[in-house]
Design goal:
two-stranded antiparallel ribbon; mainly alpha; globular; 2 strands; 14 helices; single chain; disordered N terminus
């Protein structure tokens, strides 16, 4: 049996203890910060929502592909909430509906884009995202254009909580979903199909010779990433209570790729490390230097690329290994 065969046939591995411990400590740290600085609940909830969306990009990165238009699925989830909330205010129904519609769109688009690789894959996603952005901007009668749509009041299990309680509910919901999707992605990447996904990056031809369809493997991962993007978008809409076409713009997709690089693709925890760092740096940089916060974010990314190519996750694991040596 070849090395590739052994890799694909290997049983799924459970989450390593240090990674599981870091996940627990990270979740506890977020809860503690939310208690000590209540105004950060909003920021942390948005960070967790974007982290879930970036998990989908992590799957594509494992296959060596980068989507420069992945925010279109974020927008689909968000606009699902905006359009349906007046008639269906139940958040626990809107969440799966947003994920479902994003997944359907991901399947339709994925059947086309998985035929391509590298820059063609990335730019096709970017082009499709900009088509969606243009539609959302131009169909003013339906979407209110760049003014956006204000999300009406939501209920949770039939209950309409006050503002502070709703903030805690949204934070808790985002945290639970982040943990759930993190575990799902970790198990998927350790499964034979997840290993085949990694094989697309290095030995796609050998996969085909073994009878494994690279297109089907990539399509499955693409639909999964679209679903996670839709979940992230519904959470963003429910948290910010305002949805605009900017969610589908290319800069929003670039932001997700930025977070993926910042956090590192070596673990399912990377997207959440990157998203939390990104949102906190942006908030504090905007408060300290309102006219130059983008420059500060760019400097942070440049420093990570130059001094920590593995992202924040790679930096963290290197330090832990250094202490354990």
């Amino acid at each position: 049996m070849s090395a590739t065969d052994r890799a694909l046939a290997a049983p799924p591995r459970t989450m390593r203890l240090p990674e599981a411990l870091l996940a627990v400590l990270g979740a506890a740290a977020l809860v503690l910060v939310a208690f000590l600085a209540p105004w950060l609940k909003f920021v942390l909830t948005v960070a967790l929502a974007k982290g879930i969306a970036v998990l989908g990009i992590l799957l594509l990165l494992r296959a060596g592909q980068v989507s420069f238009g992945h925010s279109m699925f974020l927008a689909v989830g968000a606009y699902t909430v905006a359009f349906l909330a007046p008639a269906v205010p139940e958040a626990l129904l809107l969440l799966p509906l947003g994920a479902l519609l994003a997944g359907i769109l991901g399947l339709v688009i994925g059947l086309f884009v998985v035929r391509y690789r590298d820059i063609f894959f990335g730019m096709l996603n970017l082009a499709l995202s900009m088509v969606l952005y243009s539609l959302l901007e131009k169909l003013y009668a339906l979407t209110k254009g760049t003014d956006g749509i204000r999300v009406s009041g939501l209920t949770f299990a039939g209950i309409t909580p006050d503002r502070e309680t709703q903030e805690w509910v949204m934070f808790g919901l985002a945290l639970v979903l982040a943990i759930g999707f993190g575990l799902l992605v970790r198990a998927y990447l350790a499964s034979p199909m997840g290993r085949a996904l990694a094989g697309i990056k290095t030995r796609e031809t050998r996969l085909e010779f073994m009878g494994v369809s690279a297109r089907r493997v990539l399509l499955f991962a693409y639909v999964m990433s679209a679903v996670m993007g839709g979940v992230g978008g519904t959470l963003v809409a429910m948290t910010t209570r305002h949805v605009t076409p900017q969610l589908a713009y290319w800069t929003s997709s670039g932001e997700l790729v930025f977070i993926a690089i910042l956090g590192g693709a070596g673990s399912a925890l990377g997207p959440f490390l990157g998203a939390t760092a990104f949102e906190l740096v942006r908030v504090y940089a905007a408060a300290a230097v309102a006219d130059a916060w983008q420059m500060i974010l760019g400097g942070v990314l440049l420093a990570v690329i130059l001094f920590a190519p593995g992202g924040l996750w790679g930096m963290l694991t290197s330090r832990l290994k250094g202490r354990g040596a």
